[in-house]
Amino acid sequence: MLIEKHSLMRFGFIGIIALMFSCKAIEPPTMPKMEEVPEAFLEVQDSASIGDISWQEFFNDPNLVYLIEEGLENNLDLLTALERIEIAQADFRVRRGMLYPTMDGIIRYRSGDVRPNLLNGTVNGDRNVVNRLENNFIGFQSNWEIDIWGKLKNRREAAFHQFLATQMGKHLVVTSMVAEIARLYYELLGMDIELETIERNIEYQEMALELIKIQKMAGRATELAVQQFAAQLLSTKSLLYEKRQEIIETENGLNFLLGRFPQPIERAGSLMEIKLPNAMEVGVPAGMLLRRPDIQQAELELKAANYNIEAARAEFLPSLNFTPYIGLNDRSLPAAMKMPGGMTIGLLGGITAPIFARNQIRAGYDQAISANKIALYNYQQAILEGYQEVSNKMQRVENLRQVYSLRDEETAVLLNAVTTANELFRGGYASYLEVITAQSRVLEAELNKTNTRKQMFLTVVDLYRSLGGGWQ
């Protein structure tokens, strides 16, 4: 009997050793290499970035500042982002709590009917006697997984960086929302000027139509000329209603961003009266993207994915658990409270090794690797998009300045051409087609000039967003 006992202990010890050595961590995965940042972007200069300027200082229009303030309070996308932060913070608290022991209060009552051995019976031979066995426990029990391999710590770090990534996601929403409010606001100001331009040209064309009718009555013009002027006037009037509809839709879109129902938008008198923000001091490429929330978010998500891989690797190794407990344990709780012997203190320990669950753990590990690669690709893509956006916007701002200057000169020349054409037409030295052509070209030139001015503002706003401006 003694030999059998020692044999069982020896086999059990050998089984534990085999269990330990059957589990081993696998090698870290090899991640794909991404293209390095060109040296030209790593040069050090001292210029500052407009992304560091607060939006209250960057936008010099009090009406726009008021709209942005209201949007920051009521925008539904921003409120949703705040709730995502709360979810991530709760998940981090859960992961952090897994590093510490748990403490549970336990009240257990067990009662069961245990019949005697029907072959032997009871002491007095009565086979129908029923004995009641009661086993009760009241006390506390704790459970603690010892983080030998850093699995729980890596899970906590992953949750922490994911929480920080959600905060960057909130900053990204703020940056995008500030830029979108400014964009729609400047769109409205540009449409106001376009509407005024169309209305002014309608007056000119109505005067020209009346003139051609008078000349027809005098025999100096034909009905064809009258119809040509009338058709031009009708076309311009149709543009008037189209522009009014665009203004209504843009106002509604801006109100939607502000989280309110449609209402008039208070705005400046003219886009030409607002000073264009200085967008040329944008900083060097190596540092100007550091404020971009999408890049910071992608970087934090990549770090979280790295920690998740380390935690998934540790799943292949055994885990060690301790379960201490203390309480009262007896067939009768009242009796246990009266007798000192009813107090029970104990400690349970166990080693769990994933032998039959390796396929499941391997699947989780493969998922962690794929998630890590996706995070790496997203991070690289965010950097590439950032450089591309900033480079394009910087060049576009300067080129639009030149375009606007030329179109301003073009508009002035065409306005003089309209006056000259009308005078020559009255004197019989120009045809009505030349007058119509001059009027059409000046309308087109004025609209193009306004659109260029608007594009200058929109590009500066987009550059401000590309450099991570708008969140504080």
Keywords, please?
472 residues; alpha+beta; 63% helix; Outer membrane efflux proteins (OEP); 4-stranded antiparallel sheet; elongated; 11 helices
Distance between the termini: 77 Å
How many E-type strands? Answer: 4
Tally of domains? 2
Mean pLDDT: 77
SSE order: HHHHEEHHHHEHEHH
| CATH superfamily heading of the largest domain | Outer membrane efflux proteins (OEP)
In the sheet with the most strands, the strands line up as: 1-2-3-4
Question: Could you estimate the helical fraction of the residues in percent?
Answer: 55-70%
What report would you give on this structure?
- InterPro entries: MdtP/NodT-like (IPR010131), OMP_efflux (IPR003423).
- It is found in: Cell membrane.
- Keywords: Lipoprotein, Membrane, Palmitate, Transmembrane, Transmembrane beta strand.
- There is one protein chain.
- The chain has 472 residues and is an alpha+beta fold.
- The chain has two domains: 359 residues, Outer membrane efflux proteins (OEP); 78 residues, Outer membrane efflux proteins (OEP) (Single Sheet).
- It contains eleven helices and four strands, in the order ααααββααααβαβαα.
- The chain has a four-stranded antiparallel sheet with strand order 1-2-3-4.
- α5 packs antiparallel against α6, α5 packs antiparallel against α8 and α8 packs antiparallel against α10.
- The two termini are 77 Å apart.
- The N terminus is likely disordered.
